[in-house]
Design goal:
The chain has 228 residues and is of the alpha/beta class. The chain has nine helices and nine strands. The protein binds calcium ion (CA).
Length: 228
């Protein structure tokens, strides 16, 4: 069955080119040209991936993503303009898988799409594996614990809400407790070997984890080793 991609983009020419190229690659493409229609379409169907423009009429891409995440975990790649740095961070924090900066080459877009689809397939397989296992593995340090089976994180018994990527990053750090991991190692383990985005993603996500754990609870569980 062809993988289904939803393209939410208000620039008609751009949307048409993307549709043409993706269809040519064998994907089944659906297009929406404003945020609200895009959100409804994403909620009512099961897409394998969503390409989501940030600057959209009616509802912004970030708002679409926030609302969508209440019910669906469909991987999302944001399409951003060059200087929308704040929006990129907001977007990642709201649960986007990746972002591509306009103008992009179609080869770059296709590579990001393949990477995001592979990551999501691997995650689904892993979740299915874990659900099969009877042991509930819990990783912990200090008052912090991460329950792999339940996909939940607690600090002193209090539940901490993490996005799927933040969860994977924290899990990786806990599995390697006490060791320094390079940005590249984290990218490999958490984002996948073929991740071709910016290594900056690691810094951004470590910042998210620090604000949700270290800063919130006044502890220092995540340390940076300079040069390593
Ligand atoms: Ca736009």
């Amino acid at each position: 069955m062809p993988e289904r991609i939803l393209v939410v983009e208000d620039e008609e020419k751009m949307a048409r080119i993307v549709e043409l190229e993706l269809s040519h690659e064998g994907y089944e493409v659906t297009k929406c040209s404003d945020g609200l229609t895009g959100l409804q379409c994403a909620e009512q169907n099961d897409f394998d991936l969503i390409l989501l423009d940030i600057m959209l009429p009616v509802l912004s891409g970030i708002e679409v993503l926030r609302r969508l995440r209440k019910s669906k975990s469909t991987p999302v790649i944001l399409l951003t303009a060059r200087d929308e740095v704040v929006d990129k961070v907001l977007g990642l924090d709201s649960g986007a898988e990746d972002y591509v900066t306009k103008p992009f080459s179609i080869e770059e877009l296709l590579a990001r799409i393949r990477a995001a689809l592979r990551t999501s397939a691997a995650r689904n397989a892993k979740t299915a594996d874990e659900n099969m296992g009877s042991d509930n593995v819990v990783l912990a340090v200090g008052e912090l614990s991460l329950d792999i089976g339940k996909h939940a994180v607690f600090y002193a018994g209090e539940n901490i809400e993490l996005t799927p990527r933040e969860f994977e990053l924290l899990r990786c750090l806990l599995e390697n407790k006490g060791m320094a991991l390079t940005r590249d190692a984290l990218l490999d383990k958490v984002w996948g070997y073929d991740y071709i985005g910016e290594t900056n993603a690691v810094d951004v996500y470590v910042r998210f984890l620090r604000s949700k754990i270290d800063e919130k609870y006044g502890v220092k569980l995540i340390s940076t080793v300079r040069g390593a």
